[in-house]
Amino acid sequence: MLRIRPYKACDAGTITKWLENEYAFRQWSADRYDKYPITAEDMNLYYDKDRDNGDIWGMTAFDDEGITGHFTMRFPRQGDFSEIRLGFVIIDNQKRGKGYGREMLALAIQYAFGCIKAAKISLGVFENNQAAIRCYESCGFKRVELETAENYRCMGEVWSCIEMELVR
Questions:
Q1: Residue 58: CB atoms within 10 Å
Q2: Among 128, 133, 146, 102, residue whose Cα is nearest residue 30
Q3: Which of the residues 18, 20, 101, 128 has the least number of beta carbons within 10 Å of its own beta carbon?
Q4: What are the tens digits of pLDDT across the range 106-164?
Q5: How is 75-113 classified by DSSP, letter by letter?
């Protein structure tokens, strides 16, 4: 049984070990970090810049065996609490394909709709991350057409994002 709690700096050592290659790392972080691989210290320095920003926070999923997943939640528009945006979603490599991602997202959805009282949850996922897309769709997220798709320069290529949302 998974549970979620606020992210702690000591979680970074475990989470960064799941980023086994640069391709998976970029699918997780896009261009948000300058280099691969990152260390726990790099992750915590990245998160420390938003330490005093009440509009973004990290969450860690865990079970009786330890940390199993991680994601961030944020209010994309300051002062507007009707939407929660998920980011940096990742599951322990050893637990992928076993329903942990779906279970973690169910907890995130429950938190966003039940505790935060958001009306909508949104996220972006790269087109080349079919496993994540299937997981999000299995949780009820729907693709949304944007006027202009988000694109990121990753590993010498341009990767396009799919926008997805779940409305209460």
A1: 21
A2: 128
A3: 20
A4: 999 999 999 999 999 999 999 999 999 999 999 999 999 988 889 999 999 999 999 99
A5: -SSTT--SEEEEEEEEE-GGGTTTTHHHHHHHHHHHIII
